[in-house]
Write a structure and sequence with these properties.
Helix content is 43%, strand content 20%. The protein is of the alpha+beta class and 128 residues long.
Length: 128
């Protein structure tokens, strides 16, 4: 059973959607369960000013995606790589023994790496 916080984030995620003309986007898929997460970011002065997600998966995947976007906003493009699955897992675990929830936080961390790799690739092309 999910706690009220998870249910609320699932029913009304603040960061669901796309960013038109995003500075970068990245995605990851959990091959075991089929969950997919895509994150879009907008960057100004090397700081993430907006982050949105599209996801296919369980309520916990949606919750982890929303938490991830919340954590990304306001960080620099370097600082955002410091967000680890344990930061997200701590907010979505319903019970300490419920280790199945770990896969959503790992998916979120992998997606952060993907979107930032794409952002850095685009920046390198622009600086040539």
């Amino acid at each position: 059973m999910y706690n009220e916080s998870i249910i609320n984030k699932f029913l009304e995620p603040k960061n669901a959607g796309r960013i038109k003309n995003a500075d970068a986007n990245g995605s990851a898929k959990n091959e075991k369960c089929g969950d997919v997460l895509k994150i879009f970011i907008a960057v100004e002065n090397d700081r993430i000013v907006d982050a949105k997600f599209k996801a296919f998966g369980s309520p916990l995947t949606i919750c982890a995606a929303d938490i991830t976007c919340e954590k990304m906003i306001g960080l620099t493009t370097e600082e955002v790589l410091g967000i680890k699955n344990s930061d997200i897992e701590a907010e979505i675990l319903v019970a300490d023994e419920d280790r199945e929830k770990l896969r959503q936080s790992i998916l979120a961390e992998e997606t952060i790496a993907s979107v930032m790799a794409e952002y850095n690739k685009r920046q390198a092309k622009m600086n040539k």
